[in-house]
Design goal:
mainly alpha; Leucine-rich Repeat Variant; two-stranded antiparallel ribbon
Length: about 240
């Protein structure tokens, strides 16, 4: 056995051992459909939506699969909202990147990696579920306000926006709370709701006079997204 090949074998053995560790310690047992995991379907769905930028929910094979998984996806989606990717998985991904392409792309290696990784834009899981995920609103609201929330609650706020009308009230409450760390995240998420956030227009309009410049800017951007026929982005000076 050549020295180079021996190094690959040792590296592969190390990767498989770390995969097993991540699988044992990570959040596993995510739901699947037709022998593909939630992660795999979300990856495919993201690819589909990038090919159809005018359509947030293209009814592709991945969409049908995610709808079939349904609310069984919520425990995994909520776990992703609440927890940042583990550093051990980041190190493992780096190790895999040094393997030959044929080995790194092997289905077994990728499956072993899954308990520690998440799709590139996993929040689309909430977009596909929509009102079916209403039961997750209370937990998402708590996660949005949590002191250790990722990016001051942005991921939880975006999930609430993707669910739809049921997420409007907690987002509006957070947007109006000058003491909430998630305030800017909530305002941005209201903008992401587009026309679905029109009931919040009176409250948001009042915030155009907020003493905080970052709040005024976030509100201006959100209003343009919610009611572009009424509000326009001010020209740069």
């Amino acid at each position: 056995m050549t020295s180079k090949r021996r190094n690959y074998v040792l590296l592969l053995a190390g990767v498989l051992a770390m995969c097993a560790l991540v699988g044992a310690l990570g959040h596993s047992h995510e739901p699947s459909y037709q022998d593909h995991t939630l992660t795999e379907w979300l990856d495919e769905y993201y690819s589909d939506s990038r090919e159809d930028l005018a359509n947030d929910a293209p009814h592709t094979k991945a969409y049908v699969a995610l709808r079939a998984i349904g609310t069984n996806a919520l425990p995994t989606l909520l776990h992703w909202v609440a927890h940042a990717p583990a550093r051990r998985h980041q190190r493992l991904t780096l190790l895999v990147s040094h393997l030959p392409r044929a080995v790194a792309d092997n289905r077994l290696v990728q499956r072993l990696l899954e308990p520690g990784r998440r799709p590139y834009f996993w929040h689309q899981g909430f977009l596909v579920l929509g009102p079916e995920a209403n039961g997750a609103v209370p937990e998402l609201t708590q996660l949005m306000y949590a002191p250790n929330a990722q990016y001051n609650g942005f991921w939880a706020a975006l999930a609430l926006a993707y669910i739809g009308p049921a997420g409007l009230a907690p987002l509006q409450s957070a947007a109006l709370d000058p003491h909430a760390r998630c305030r800017l995240a909530a305002i941005q998420a209201l903008g992401a709701m587009g026309a679905n956030a029109k009931p919040a227009l009176p409250a948001l309009t009042q915030l155009l006079n907020d003493p905080a410049p970052d709040v005024r800017m976030a509100v201006t951007n959100a209003l343009v997204e919610i009611a572009p026929d009424v509000f326009t982005q001010p020209s740069a000076r």
